[in-house]
């Protein structure tokens, strides 16, 4: 299969492909999604096949507006209207109970709930409208690897496997959306993202809880990224706390020889290394935007045996960054002797 790169003026053709059951990757403000018509179960099954993704992992349904969710949702949490007004379109996925048989179990992972998001990307919103159906859109990459933040990343992973990629440049945020479960009495964050616990609590004036349990092998996760290994390059990743960089670099050079650094300029300028991916500046925003690109770049360069990665405090946006980095590093921190 030839994988075509589409520009905004080719939306009609991209939408036709989706209506015909083909897969087309699309841009969002977070990462690129692998699109299929959410109402065509056979197309959705191909998403799992192309990604190599376990089929019990539910998919996020991307909509063009809140009205599109009403076809599927049984009832809404009392806070829904306030959340939608403040955070949609945007990097926030909401989980609702759904009407029986309104969505295929292939989409929901067999659950009685489904996840919905309105992405903050005008081209993709128009694509959904032209398709005249919501789109599933897990990250457009090989399952488990760093998510794609450019069309080139998608092409690298899925060339020849999907019909096309809608190119809108690099994403702005760089990590997947926050997933907020509204299917119970209390709002619970299942996956942290750019819409932080702090931002939600400020708007809602209620406590928002963080779900930290590990999903068992026999249990279906309610949201993507809760159960399986995610975001990991082939090159081993080790997280390094600010005070440990001198010893960590010395250790890595002795143990692995070829060392790569994934960090801000204030850290990378201090050390010699086989390879670097330097965040644009020392802020958590730059680190989050560059995390997946950095992991991909260093891994694909093939010049290093280990990647030493900068850590941040696990509050606000740092919670999203560290959630992904911990999984990429299999929870491994450098430990002093």
UniProtKB/TrEMBL annotation:
* Keywords of the record: ATP-binding, Cytoplasm, Nucleotide-binding, Nucleotidyltransferase, Transferase, tRNA processing
Cellular localization per UniProt: Cytoplasm
Per the UniProt entry, the Enzyme Commission number(s) are 2.7.7.87
Instruction: Name the catalysed reactions.
Output: L-threonine + hydrogencarbonate + ATP = L-threonylcarbamoyladenylate + diphosphate + H2O
InterPro entries the record matches:
DHBP_synth_RibB-like_a/b_dom, Sua5-like_dom, Sua5/YwlC_C, Sua5_C, T(6)A37_SUA5, TC-AMP_synthase_SUA5
**What cellular component GO annotations does this protein have?**
cytoplasm
Q: Which residues bind L-threonine?
A: 30, 62, 117, 177
Q: Which Pfam families match?
A: Sua5_C, Sua5_yciO_yrdC
Which superkingdom? Bacteria
> Which Gene3D superfamilies does the record cross-reference, listed alphabetically?
DHBP synthase, Threonylcarbamoyl-AMP synthase, C-terminal domain
Q: Where is the YrdC-like domain?
A: 8-195
Q: Which principal EC class is assigned to this enzyme?
A: transferase
Q: Which GO terms describe its biological process?
A: regulation of translational fidelity; tRNA processing
GO MF terms here are: ATP binding; double-stranded RNA binding; L-threonylcarbamoyladenylate synthase; tRNA binding
Query: Major place of localization?
Result: cytoplasm
Residues annotated as binding ATP = 53, 57, 113, 139, 147, 191, 231
Role summary: Required for the formation of a threonylcarbamoyl group on adenosine at position 37 (t(6)A37) in tRNAs that read codons beginning with adenine.
Q: Spell out the PANTHER family in the cross-references.
A: SUA5 (PTHR17490), THREONYLCARBAMOYL-AMP SYNTHASE (PTHR17490:SF16)
Protein's recorded name: Threonylcarbamoyl-AMP synthase
């Amino acid at each position: 299969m030839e994988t075509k790169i589409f520009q905004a003026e080719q939306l009609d053709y991209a939408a036709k492909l989706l209506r015909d059951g083909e897969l087309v990757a699309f841009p969002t403000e977070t990462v690129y999604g692998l699109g299929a018509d959410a109402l065509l179960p056979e197309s959705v099954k191909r998403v799992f096949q192309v990604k190599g993704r376990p089929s019990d992992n539910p998919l996020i349904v991307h909509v063009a507006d809140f009205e599109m969710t009403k076809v599927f949702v049984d009832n809404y949490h009392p806070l829904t209207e306030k959340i939608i007004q403040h955070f949609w379109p945007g990097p926030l996925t909401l989980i609702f109970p759904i009407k029986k048989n309104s969505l295929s179990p292939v989409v929901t992972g067999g659950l009685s709930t489904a996840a919905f998001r309105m992405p903050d990307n005008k081209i993709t919103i128009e694509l959904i409208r032209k398709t005249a159906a919501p789109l599933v859109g897990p990250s457009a990459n090989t399952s488990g690897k760093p998510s794609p933040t450019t069309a080139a990343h998608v092409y690298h992973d899925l060339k020849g496997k999907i019909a096309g990629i809608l190119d809108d440049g690099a994403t702005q945020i760089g990590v997947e959306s926050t997933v907020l479960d509204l299917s119970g009495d209390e709002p619970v964050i299942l996956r942290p993202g750019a819409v932080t616990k702090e931002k939600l609590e400020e708007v809602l004036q209620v406590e928002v809880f963080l779900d930290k349990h590990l999903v068992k092998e026999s249990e279906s996760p309610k949201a993507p990224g809760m159960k399986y290994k995610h975001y990991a390059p082939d090159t081993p990743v080790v997280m390094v706390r600010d005070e440990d960089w001198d010893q960590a670099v010395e250790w890595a050079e002795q143990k692995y020889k070829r060392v790569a650094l994934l960090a801000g300029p204030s850290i990378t300028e201090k050390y010699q290394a086989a390879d670097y991916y330097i965040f644009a500046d020392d802020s958590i925003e730059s680190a989050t935007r560059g995390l997946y690109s950095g992991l991909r770049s260093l891994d694909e360069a093939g010049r290093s045996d280990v990647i030493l990665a900068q850590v941040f405090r696990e509050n606000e946006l740092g919670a999203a960054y560290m959630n992904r980095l911990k999984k990429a590093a299999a929870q491994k921190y450098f430990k002093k002797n």
